[in-house]
Specification:
The chain starts with 9 loop residues before the first strand and ends in a 15-residue tail after the last strand. It contains 16 helices and 21 strands. The longest helix has 21 residues, at about 370-390. It has helices at about 85-90, 95-105, 120-130, 135-140, 185-190, 215-220, 245-260, 315-320, 370-390, 410-420, 420-425, 460-470, 490, 525-545, 575-585, 600-605, and strands at about 10-15, 25-30, 65-70, 145-150, 155-165, 170-175, 205-215, 230-235, 265-270, 300-305, 325-335, 335-345, 350-360, 395-400, 425-435, 445-450, 480-485, 500-505, 555-560, 590-595, 610. It is globular. The chain is about 25% helix and about 25% strand. By secondary structure, the chain is α/β, with parallel strands linked by helices. It folds into 2 domains: about 25-150 and about 335-545, 3-Layer(aba) Sandwich (Aminopeptidase); about 155-335, Glucose Oxidase, domain 1, CATH 3.50.30.
């Protein structure tokens, strides 16, 4: 906190805000790698069983962060003395891949690590268990913090089974289900097996019928009227892939199938390395099925063609010989849903300052190796290397695994809103994600957000990290100036010097698809090492060097944003980043009273500007589906 001496304040009441939850396309500008001061100016395994009921499936109220008491073992902390190069040599591809394999096997074919699900929570507990076994970090006083928050919509996939009958023999094969719309309750409920909001009871829907395979619009158009009645349709996903087909065309196809009286639908995709061919992108969301509004939903699963081998199917011709199929479908939609963050604090020799490293741990209803398992295990590798080398960071190091990024940055926004004291002593934030889309080669990128709108185009942290990476032979391909919230790093940019770190490769296109697996990235061990190395560099050298990273002046004034009754994170200061940055440019320290925290008179007394956000909560357990 900065010194306060103002006696009066300007109070701004914000009566109503509507801020879209969809991604804002950021503008990106390459910037030179310099921080020269400028003049100051104003083989996936089929599941062996289905999920069992759990209390965690029910929406839980948000709470303030709760900390696990630190270990009380007595070894004396040791300041970092080894060179970074010697620590980089301890990075283990074997550990990285082993952890990635574990993460991508969580809740297989049952939502994986989808946002605000049991799978996401299980992934965070997996990380917490490993951190709890790191004896040296425990001796330093490693603390784990779990915080919970609400998201507007969440979908749990309890039971998604598919049985195929060939030559009179029924065989179970792996299958998953789409999770449906992220922002529209009515549309999301089309993917709820019983159609009841916030009903966590297991009510599996089972349908069966003769099988019919459709792979072209010509085949669909040639179907006699009523021919689909009571049948299970196996549809080549390429026909409705949002990435490769026209919106009107794919919507018409799925509408016709639903209207034709099919008993169930199985979307089938196939691996491909051919540019322009479909391989299941956005399949976990439901693709064009999300857009159907005029007809009732029908039980829907999806499957990879390669996973149908147990039934003797290795190609489309084999699939055409399936005689009958049976679907078991049990999903529930919650509004609000429950998610959370996992935060690890590794005490530094000087606890007055801190560095934050973060990555989202949830996946988009897929195994999530590229998005964002690789960065999640890279954070874990930072902790393992420090533990193995018995090195204490120069300043406090925070490792954060965000939840519900895929629903639009919920976890990072909750973290920033609820950790204002930490941000006041944070010198840098290094936030990691992947680039969705194929690139011709491995690629590493640093993205800052300059104050060029105010006449200062420096991105000091990105430029500093670029130079330090070059000194350690870590190849940074580009440093860009990204104006806007493109990923989690944008949320931090209103409060602390921040760099977004992203990696890309020729495998990047498989993100948000059923093929975002360990097997697909198995030959990218060198890239995984570079990612972990960059995280370790940001964690240690930034705190050791204490570079001058601020572009805005040291704060001498204080602004307070009251979000204590504003549950919707997309209406809070972490989305109003342009306002935060403008205030910082004018010498304000921007503080936030987060949702659920009482406003004390002392908080108001020395604020020169107070912004009161509207009172708004998510609907309760009996929420209105017409919202």
């Amino acid at each position: 906190m900065v010194a306060r001496n103002r006696a009066t304040a300007l109070v701004v009441l914000v009566p109503f805000l509507i801020i879209g939850c969809g991604a804002v396309e950021p503008t990106t500008t390459p910037v030179p790698a310099t921080d020269t001061p400028l003049p100051p100016t104003a083989t996936l395994v089929p599941p062996t069983s289905t999920k069992q009921p759990s209390e965690s499936a029910l929406p839980q109220p948000p709470d303030l962060p709760t900390a696990i008491p630190p270990a009380t073992s007595t070894p004396k902390p040791t300041e970092a003395s080894e060179s970074l190069d010697s620590l980089l040599s301890l990075i283990s591809q074997e550990r990285l891949f082993a952890s990635l394999k574990e993460l991508t096997a969580i809740q297989p074919y049952s939502g994986w690590r989808s946002s605000a699900t049991e799978g996401e929570a299980e992934a965070q507990e997996y990380v917490a268990d490993i951190l709890g076994d790191l004896a040296y970090l425990q001796s330093l006083g490693l603390e784990l913090e779990r915080s919970s928050f609400h998201v507007f919509l969440a979908t749990e996939l309890w039971d998604t089974r598919l049985y195929l009958t060939t030559q009179g023999q029924e065989t179970e094969v792996p299958a998953d289900a789409p999770r449906g719309h992220r922002h529209d309750v009515t549309q999301a409920l089309r993917f709820d097996s019983d159609g009841a909001l916030n009903d966590s009871e297991r009510n599996p829907v089972e349908v069966q019928g003769d099988a019919v395979l459709l792979r072209s619009t010509g085949e669909i158009d040639a179907l006699p009227e009523g021919d689909l009645e009571g049948k299970i349709v196996f549809l080549d996903y390429a026909l409705i892939d949002l990435m490769t087909t026209a919106p009107g065309e794919n919507l018409q196809i799925v509408s016709n199938l639903i209207d034709g009286g099919a008993a169930g639908l199985v979307l089938v995709t196939q691996f491909s390395t051919v540019p322009g061919e479909s391989y299941g992108r956005l399949l976990g969301d439901g693709a064009a099925l999300e857009r159907v509004t005029t007809r009732p939903a029908l039980p829907t699963l999806y499957a990879r063609l390669e996973d149908l081998a147990p039934a003797g199917i290795s190609n489309w011709q084999d699939l055409a010989r399936v005689e009958a199929a049976r679907l078991v479908w049990d999903t529930d939609v919650f509004s609000p849903g429950s998610s959370g963050n996992l935060v690890a604090r590794i005490p530094g020799a000087d606890p007055s300052s801190a560095v934050i490293l973060g990555a989202h741990i949830d996946s988009p209803n897929s195994p999530g190796a590229i998005d964002n398992g690789i960065n999640s295990v890279a954070l874990l590798e930072v902790a393992r290397v420090l533990n193995q080398a018995q090195v204490q960071p120069a300043i406090d190091l925070y490792l954060v695994w965000f939840g519900s990024e895929e629903l639009w940055l919920y976890g990072s926004q909750h973290f920033v809103n609820t950790h204002q004291e930490l941000l006041d002593r944070t010198i840098a934030a290094f936030i990691m994600d992947g680039i969705i889309g194929p690139l011709p080669r491995d690629y590493l990128e640093l993205a800052g957000w300059s104050h060029s709108r105010f006449g200062d185009a420096r991105t000091n942290l990105s430029s500093y990290l670029d130079r330090r990476a070059a000194a350690h032979d870590i190849p940074i391909d580009q440093v860009i100036d990204r104006q806007g919230i493109g990923a989690d790093e944008g949320v931090f940019n209103g409060f602390v010097p921040t760099t977004g770190f992203a990696f890309g490769s020729d495998k990047g296109g498989y993100a948000h698809s059923p093929y975002d697996t360990v097997e697909v990235v198995a030959e990218q061990g060198a890239l995984l090492e570079q990612i972990a190395a960059m995280a370790l560099l940001a964690a240690l050298e930034t705190g050791q060097d204490r570079p001058e990273l601020r572009v805005t002046p040291e704060p001498v004034r204080r602004a307070l944003i009251l979000a204590s009754h504003t549950e919707v994170l997309h209406m809070t200061p972490t989305t109003l980043v342009d306002l935060d940055r403008a205030l910082a440019w004018e010498g304000f320290d921007v503080d936030v009273i987060p949702y659920g925290q009482a406003v004390a008179a002392d908080e108001l007394r020395d604020a020169e500007l107070i912004v009161a956000l509207p009172v708004i909560d998510y609907p309760g357990p009996s929420g209105d589906p017409n919202l």
